[in-house]
Design goal:
By secondary structure, the protein is α/β, with parallel strands linked by helices. The chain is 34% helix and 30% strand. The chain is globular. Bound molecules: flavin-adenine dinucleotide.
């Protein structure tokens, strides 16, 4: 039977970065990716954090627009403008495709059209079963460590990584790529827009407009399930509002795409002997805005570090990974999931929060940072802001 040191399941940002960095460190790595082309089918607004390309050693050429402006819209449609450290936009074809190409250059064996089917334990090794969708054959690889990075559709229920609350955190999303016959208003190409409002049936939704070189990504997500026709109607209503502001006179064509996202608290168990889970499959998504590419890529880095640092004792990799991941992201992501559930209870809470953010550049700046990047003074400041927000919204 084929045997490798490290198997990665899924070649999104989490799996791609894990494969690239593990291979670079000399670890023999195989990636199983179900799609025939890496990144071709990913549905995403693809907003990137400031410095993303430098952090993950990616060419700037994948950046479509630099976005120094964040515009938040409350449930009444009022706009709050925040100055942020400029983020960027790209497309997932380019992002995932580029990471995949670089991983191959660094020696990773990326097997496309390879669908992960299951995991078995045999002594101290793992047997990974997958289907080769081109030949129709069922295949098995033996490995010492596997990194699960299949995104929101990860089926881990039958493993020790199972999380019964997972289904409750799933978000249904739908997005248009809008191709215009002439440019939209200039402000569209420097802004990330996030809108928070109630759907016709009273559920809170998060919607966005993110600019790209040749199109605008306009989409929305709702917690749980929503019938396709209803979701499409909501998206059409939202798109009409964006059109009225940003491209009233343009003619356009659209491409519709949809996928599941996760918007709950992170998965409690992310590492068991031999197996680690990262990216969206680990629930590493900021529930307030759907951001998860950075977290996914960073989890891939942690997995690669853990495997390469534990080559003499591969059974230790999972502990190293679990500790790094939880220390880095869990506190913030749990708070974001709680904040989102609190905001969703009353529309006026969004306005109160955005108003507070609009008045304090420091508050905005600190919210963009991880816990470990904050000083004691920063934490005290945030605590004060949280108390102020709670006092303003508790009764209102
Ligand atoms: C509509 C939408 C908009 C978003 N916008 C943003 C944004 O602007 N900024 C941001 O930071 N985040 C955004 N996100 C979140 C972002 O997409 C995720 O955080 C990110 O994709 C997570 O990367 P990942 O590698 O964990 O998983 P994914 O990107 O989902 O990749 C998983 C990979 O695994 C493969 N796979 C799945 N099952 C199997 C299997 N059984 N066998 C083999 N391969 C498999 C898939 O084909 C895929 O290539 C958005 C998400 C959605 C749905």
């Amino acid at each position: 039977m084929e045997q490798v040191e490290f198997v990665v399941v899924g070649c999104g940002p989490a799996g791609g970065v894990a494969a690239r960095e593990a291979s670079r460190a000399g670890v023999r790595t195989v990636v199983l990716e179900k799609d025939s082309t890496v990144g071709a089918k990913r549905v995403c607004a693809a907003g990137l954090r400031p410095g993303f390309c430098a952090t993950f050693d990616l060419p700037r050429a994948i950046v479509h627009c630099d976005t120094p402006r964040l515009a938040l819209f409350d449930p009444a449609g009022k706009e709050y403008e925040l100055a942020i450290v400029p983020g960027h936009t790209t497309t997932r074809e380019e992002l995932d495709g580029t990471i995949g190409d670089l991983a191959r250059t660094d020696g990773a064996d990326i097997r496309t059209s390879s669908l992960f089917r299951g995991l078995r334990r045999e002594g101290n090794r793992l047997l990974i079963d997958y289907a080769d969708l081109k030949s129709g054959e069922h295949k098995t690889i033996a490995t010492q460590n596997v990194f699960f990075a299949q995104g929101s559709t990860a089926k881990l229920e039958d493993t020790e990584l199972a999380y019964p609350q997972w289904q409750n955190g799933l978000v249904t999303t739908l997005q248009y790529r809008v191709y215009l016959d002439r440019p939209a208003a200039a402000v569209a190409y420097t802004s990330l827009e996030m809108h928070y409002f109630a759907t016709l049936d009273g559920r809170m939704t998060v919607a966005w407009m993110f600019p790209k070189r040749d199109h605008l990504a306009i989409g929305l997500g709702v917690m749980g399930k929503m019938a396709g026709a209803q979701l499409r109607e909501e998206l059409d209503r939202f798109t009409d509002r964006v059109r009225a502001r940003l491209y009233p006179a343009a003619t356009f064509t659209t491409k519709l795409e949809g996928h599941l996202l996760y918007g709950g608290a992170p998965r409690p168990a992310v590492a068991v002997p031999g197996a680690m889970v990262g990216g969206t499959a680990a629930g590493l998504v900021d529930a307030t805005n759907g951001e998860g590419i950075y977290e996914a890529a960073m989890s891939g880095r942690f997995a690669a570090d853990a495997v390469s640092a534990s080559r003499a004792q591969p059974h230790r990799a999972y502990q190293r990974y679990g500790t790094a991941l939880k220390n880095r992201f869990y506190s913030r992501l749990r708070h974001r999931a709680e904040l989102m559930r609190y905001l969703e209870c009353k529309p006026s809470r969004y306005s109160a929060l955005f108003d507070q953010l609009g008045k304090s550049a420091r508050f905005v700046d600190l919210l963009q940072r991880e816990d470990h990047e904050r000083t004691l003074g920063d934490k005290a400041f945030l605590y004060g802001q949280a108390l102020r927000f709670a006092a303003r919204t508790f009764h209102g």
